[in-house]
Amino acid sequence: MKNKTLGLGVLALVLGVIAISAGSALAYRGDPTVKGPNYSTERHTAMLKAFENKDYTAWKNLMQNRGMASKVVTESNFAKFVEAHNLALQGKTAEAQKIRQELGLGLKNGSGRNGGGMMNGMGMGKHSNR
Predict the structure, then answer these.
(1) Residue 37's domain spans which residues?
(2) Is 39 part of a structural domain of the chain?
């Protein structure tokens, strides 16, 4: 009985850590006020400058092919991505989210271009978070 209780306790702890980690890693997507996992003051300043100057090349270099945005945002649609970023900073989240959807970045709830999360087709549910 002790082993079963201990096992359940360890399982609960592991699931709790995963839930907390997933929540903090997912929070920044689409919300420029939340620090992402690659945040540093220097990178943040450089990113703001790239957005301000609409400098796709600088932004792309900062992204280092990480994240869905680096796969979806191109030089030709970067101005729309910057517009979404600026709208989000102004608190116009619905307008920003509409642009993000148009770009194929999906919603915060994990639905993306194909209606499923990034993990859709990889054993995760249709509405799973990224």
Answers:
(1) 2-103
(2) yes
Tell me the three state secondary structure of residue 40.
coil
In terms of C-beta density within 10 A (0-12 exposed, 13-18 middle, 19 or more buried), how is residue 4 classed? exposed
In-domain check, residue 60: yes
The tokens for 71 are 């796969």
Q: How many domains does the chain have?
A: 1
| Intervals of the chain under pLDDT 70 | 1-30, 32, 107-130
- Predicted pLDDT at 9: 52
Torsion from C-alpha of 40, 43, 45, 48, nearest 10 degrees: -120
Residues 6+ apart with CB under 8 A from 114: 120
- 2-24 pLDDT tens trace: 666 655 555 544 444 444 433 33
- Evaluate if pTM is beyond 0.85: no
